[in-house]
């Protein structure tokens, strides 16, 4: 039995731009399932990132409700949202956004220590995760500017995972990476999803989207299509590619 | 035509270049409006204080001299009782080289008169003149007067209005020999001579009728003669008085009923302008601190703007701007701010001068007229602007060394030797505390700036509070500077009384802790007239004025002040010739003392010592120290029991209170100015630094918010990151203030005769002040960092 982790009802998000109201999300009703690797696709300006940040508690909706694990995010204050995010969400950004003045390990711990009391255990956990994503001990004391883009993004993923989030949110996580680094990052995503980690990812890259098991297509602020791809498997990649290609063509991609 | 073209093209280019530099500078100013505004205020305050301080220092002497000239005040006066007067005195003065005019007139002279002054009783000698007498020297110039007249009118010095709390038409009571003489204040007059409470002699004027009425009421002893003299060179007035006393030595030693008093304008000017000068010096010193703060802020701003604008510098260099042009745009930016702010500060100083003028008036009893002083204004602007240009130039010089490609890459060199201080995995302590400490270390340069500023401001605050505490709250140390013995009541004994016998009797009275003979007589030491204290044993006194060596113990010993020591070129171990009356004896100098009073010209002899010069000397003044009884009650008791043996009693505490009242207001004003500026600077520095920090670290704060840090957690991190440096700064400043306030004040007061200063540095007050600055810094940083609320994680992501 699949469990709904996020449910939105009539979710609207508008921006005022020079006195002109721009309705980015329009009465959106979606359900996100625990354990899924959900990919949100759509053309530029379709509202993908806006939707991601609204359902992750990074931004407040204009209207509507967001039920995230039983909490209505629309009713929370900014600081309540911050506490909610630290306990339930992990974020991976296209621009990576590591803290420049902290070492790799400190970047991870700065997030982990927010909710973990046992520092020794947490440090060990951080080190294990870093090793797992291929960041060896030599790099732990480096500063972000001393890392390659791929390395920095893998540190970003460890930071997002350190607090065992209910959902890992990723906004174009491979957008600034080369091909090899992108594969590396996507393998990590596939791995953690295989271990039960829910992921919601925004992308406009087909290769990246293939990692997901559920594709949602957004156009003009509404979900206009959905594709069930099933769990990622390297062997079925050609079939998945064709299926996704057909879906995207149908959506007007 | 061709020639014109040849000449005009380079000049147009040059002009265009200048325009570009100006445009760049203005663009930089526009980009950082609030930082520019705070810097503008710093420089404005510095220029304001500097302008006021310099104007007062440079104008106060001329002001006093001009007043003396306008008022036709005497440059020297000698007054004496009728018995002591001799017509030869007038002839001597009139024939003295350099004397341009002299007048001799009768006056009522009260040796010890009492009147209320600033809610206390002031004891002073009083010279009361007939206002209707014709005179060319020391004419009556009324500042305020009543339109009508009455039979009991009196004209009193202006200081009674500015400091004494009197108004026109009010009753003024003079108490002389325990009898009250009541008058109506018909006018306040200005005078440079005998117009203040701190020379021990005050001038009053009575119209013809009340003057004669008073003269008739008093015994003949109160009528005396006053010889006034005007000199070509008023500086010679001191010499005139010295030569007069040398020519006509006072032979009536030991008598309290006969006297000759002398005052010269140089001495009076020194006494009247001393406090004004000290306040002006403090203002200038504080202006220097503010300039120093501004320079540090500018250094910080320049370094920051170079770092922030590194890419822009790269672009400018890449498209062909020279380092000189870029450097010029930075310098022009700060020169524009410095010049406009210092001009505004100078203009504003004229707005504040009436306040300073009122302080000058309350200290001198003279009406201050502010003059426009272009020279000082230009000096102020030049000093401030040139310091700023110099610091800007030094700070911005590194622009020359930056290669365009390095600048385009944001100035990051290929190697980084940064160290990860306080790693979160190994360092003990709470997360937010550790993050705050990391931030403090990462911003070391900026924190050094804050550290220096906080040290300077804390020191200035401690200095001003110590000054206030010692001059207003616990005056013991301040009063000691004047060489005053801190007893409670002074008793002047009648000449035919056995002083020691009376001393023993008073000593037996209840609530009397101690009684000492403590006389102040005039002797000549190596030919110079010196005020000399005489007592049985200096160990019994509570104020030891000797700062080097010791007070005399034996009959052949003497202590002299360092002023006298300099004048006669003698020190400890030397022998001096002391003359009293007709006798002269050699004494060994055992110590050097200090005193603000009597122009610092004082000495100390033992009773046995003075008895070598005048064997019948017994002493005429008793200093009484009391416990658990009011001075008034004791005076009443002693008058009842021993009134027949007493000429006069004086409530020393009340007299000190009234004499030091004028300093209270001035020092309070200084303290308030210093504290207000301290608060202002702390607030502005933190505002400037935290605002810049939030702008620079906007991305970092956005990321932290995204991963779950709340606004209050980040605000606390920011505030706590400043606390260590503020704590260290406050501690250093407090310690410096604790140990160096006295030495610094000694330097400031050295011209007044002070070598060693023992102001009470009250530790709890310093602690409270330091904690106050710390709390202020924390509250301000929390308040300013509230801006972080506006940094939303989302806005960061959609940037």
Observed structural traits:
heterodimer; A: 253 residues; alpha/beta; 6-stranded mixed beta sheet; 5-stranded antiparallel beta sheet; globular; B: 799 residues; alpha+beta; 10-stranded mixed beta sheet
Record the SSE blueprint.
The complex is a heterodimer of chains A (253) and B (799).
Chain A: E1 4-17, E2 20-28, E3 31-33, E4 37-42, H1 48-55, E5 63-68, E6 71-72, H2 78-88, E7 89-92, H3 104-112, H4 119-132, H5 149-161, E8 167-171, H6 179-194, E9 198-202, H7 206-209, E10 214-219, E11 222-228, H8 237-251
Chain B: H1 2-31, H2 33-70, E1 76-81, H3 87-95, E2 99-117, E3 120-130, E4 142-145, E5 153-157, H4 159-162, E6 171-176, E7 179-189, E8 201-206, H5 208-217, E9 223-231, H6 237-247, E10 260-264, H7 265-308, H8 310-318, H9 323-364, H10 374-396, H11 404-408, H12 431-442, H13 444-473, H14 476-481, E11 489-493, H15 499-508, E12 512-525, E13 528-535, E14 546-549, E15 557-561, H16 562-568, E16 575-580, E17 583-593, E18 602-606, H17 607-613, E19 621-626, H18 631-642, E20 646-651, H19 652-696, H20 698-706, H21 711-749, H22 763-784, H23 793-797
Helix pairs in contact in B: 1-9, 2-7, 2-9, 2-10, 2-19, 7-9, 7-10, 7-13, 7-19, 9-10, 12-21, 13-19, 13-21, 13-22, 19-22, 21-22
């Amino acid at each position: 039995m699949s469990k709904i982790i996020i449910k939105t009802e009539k979710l609207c998000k508008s921006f005022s731009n020079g006195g002109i109201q721009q309705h980015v999300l329009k009465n959106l009703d979606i359900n996100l399932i625990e354990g899924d690797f959900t990919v949100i696709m759509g053309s530029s300006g379709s509202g993908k990132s806006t939707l991601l940040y609204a359902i992750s508690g990074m931004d407040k909706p204009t209207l509507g409700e967001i039920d995230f694990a039983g909490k209505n995010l629309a009713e929370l204050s900014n600081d309540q949202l911050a506490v909610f995010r630290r306990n339930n969400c992990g974020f991976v950004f296209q621009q990576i956004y590591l803290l420049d003045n902290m070492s790799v390990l400190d970047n991870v711990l700065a997030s982990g220590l927010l909710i973990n009391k046992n520092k020794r255990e947490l440090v060990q956990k951080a080190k294990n995760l870093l090793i797992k994503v291929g960041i060896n001990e030599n790099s732990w004391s480096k500063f972000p500017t001393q890392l390659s883009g791929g390395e920095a993004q893998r540190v970003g993923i460890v930071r997002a995972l350190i607090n065992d989030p209910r959902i890992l949110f990723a906004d174009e996580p491979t957008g600034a990476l080369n091909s090899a680094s992108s594969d590396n990052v996507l393998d990590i995503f596939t791995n953690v999803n295989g271990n039960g980690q829910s992921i919601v990812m925004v992308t406009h890259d087909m290769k990246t989207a293939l990692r997901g098991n559920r594709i949602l297509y957004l156009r003009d602020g509404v979900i206009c299509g959905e594709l069930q791809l099933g769990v990622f498997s390297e062997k079925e990649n050609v079939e998945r590619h064709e299926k996704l290609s057909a879906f995207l063509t149908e959506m007007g991609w | 035509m061709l020639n014109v073209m040849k000449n005009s093209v380079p000049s147009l280019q040059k002009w265009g270049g200048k325009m570009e530099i100006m445009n760049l500078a203005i663009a930089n100013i526009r980009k950082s409006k609030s930082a520019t505004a705070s810097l503008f205020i710093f420089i404005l305050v510095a220029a304001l204080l500097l302008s006021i301080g310099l104007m007062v220092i440079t104008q106060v002497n001329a002001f006093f001299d001009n007043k003396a000239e306008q008022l036709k005040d005497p440059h020297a006066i000698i007054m004496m009782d009728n018995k002591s007067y001799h017509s030869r005195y007038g002839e001597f003065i009139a024939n003295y080289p350099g004397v341009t005019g002299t007048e001799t007139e009768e006056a009522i002279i009260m040796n010890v008169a009492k009147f209320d002054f600033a809610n206390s009783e002031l004891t002073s000698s009083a010279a009361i003149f007939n206002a209707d007498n014709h005179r060319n020297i020391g004419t009556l110039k009324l500042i305020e007067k009543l339109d009508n007249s009455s039979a009991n009118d009196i004209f009193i010095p202006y200081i009674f209005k500015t400091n004494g709390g009197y108004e026109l038409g009010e009753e003024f009571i003079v108490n002389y020999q325990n009898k009250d003489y009541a008058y109506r204040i018909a006018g306040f007059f200005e005078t440079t001579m005998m117009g203040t409470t701190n020379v021990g002699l005050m001038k009053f004027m009575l119209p013809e009728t009340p003057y004669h009425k008073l003269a008739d009421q008093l015994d003949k002893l109160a009528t005396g003669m006053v010889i006034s003299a005007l000199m070509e060179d008023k500086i010679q007035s001191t010499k005139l008085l010295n030569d007069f006393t040398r020519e006509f030595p006072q032979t009536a030693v030991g008598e309290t009923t006969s006297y000759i008093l002398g005052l010269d304008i140089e001495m009076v000017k020194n006494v009247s302008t001393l406090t004004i000068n000290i306040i002006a010096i403090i203002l200038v010193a504080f202006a220097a601190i503010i300039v120093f703060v501004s320079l540090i802020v500018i250094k910080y701003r320049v370094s920051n703007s170079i770092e922030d604008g590194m890419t822009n510098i790269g672009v400018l260099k890449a498209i062909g701007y020279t380092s000189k042009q870029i450097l010029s745009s930075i310098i022009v930016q700060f020169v524009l701010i410095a010049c406009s702010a210092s001009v505004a500060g100078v203009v504003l100083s004229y707005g504040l001068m009436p306040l300073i003028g009122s302080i000058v008036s309350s200290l001198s009893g003279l009406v201050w007229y502010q003059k426009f002083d272009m020279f000082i204004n230009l000096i102020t602007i030049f000093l401030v602007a040139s310091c700023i240009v110099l610091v800007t130039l030094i700070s911005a010089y590194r622009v020359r060394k930056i290669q365009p490609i390095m600048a385009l890459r944001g100035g990051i060199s290929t190697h980084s030797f940064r160290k990860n201080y306080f790693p979160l995995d190994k360092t003990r302590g709470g997360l937010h505390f550790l993050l705050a400490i990391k931030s403090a270390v990462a911003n070391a340069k900026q924190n050094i700036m804050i550290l220096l500023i906080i040290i300077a401001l804390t020191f200035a605050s401690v200095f001003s509070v110590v000054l206030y505490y010692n001059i207003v709250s616990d005056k013991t140390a301040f009063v000691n500077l004047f060489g005053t013995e801190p007893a409670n009541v002074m008793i002047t004994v009648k000449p035919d009384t056995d002083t020691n016998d009376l001393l023993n009797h008073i000593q037996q009275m209840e609530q009397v802790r101690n009684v000492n003979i403590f006389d102040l007589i005039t002797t000549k030491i190596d030919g110079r007239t010196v005020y000399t204290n005489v007592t049985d044993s200096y160990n019994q006194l509570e104020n030891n004025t000797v700062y080097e060596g010791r007070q005399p113990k034996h009959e052949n010993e003497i202590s002299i002040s360092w002023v006298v020591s300099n004048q006669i070129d003698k020190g400890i171990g030397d022998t001096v010739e002391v003359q009293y009356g007709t006798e002269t004896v050699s004494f060994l100098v055992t110590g050097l003392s200090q005193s603000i009073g009597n122009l610092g010209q004082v000495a100390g002899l033992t009773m046995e010592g003075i008895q070598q010069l005048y064997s019948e000397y017994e002493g005429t003044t008793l200093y009484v120290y009391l416990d658990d009884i009011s001075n008034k009650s004791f005076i009443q008791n002693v008058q009842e029991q021993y009134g027949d043996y007493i000429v006069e009693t004086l409530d020393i505490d009340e007299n000190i209170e009234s004499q030091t009242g004028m300093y209270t207001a001035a020092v309070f004003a200084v303290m308030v100015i210093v504290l207000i500026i301290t608060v202002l600077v702390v607030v502005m520095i933190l505002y400037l630094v935290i605002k810049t920090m939030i702008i620079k670290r906007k991305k970092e704060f956005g990321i932290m918010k995204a991963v779950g840090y709340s606004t209050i957690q980040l605000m606390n991190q920011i505030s706590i990151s400043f606390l260590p440096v503020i704590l260290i700064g406050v501690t250093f400043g407090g310690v410096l203030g604790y140990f160096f306030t006295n030495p610094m004040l000694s330097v400031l007061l050295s011209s007044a005769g002070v070598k060693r200063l023992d102001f009470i540095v009250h530790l709890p007050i310093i602690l409270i002040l330091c904690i106050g600055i710390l709390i202020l810094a924390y509250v301000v940083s929390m308040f300013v960092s509230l801006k972080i609320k506006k940094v939303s994680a989302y806005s960061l992501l959609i940037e």
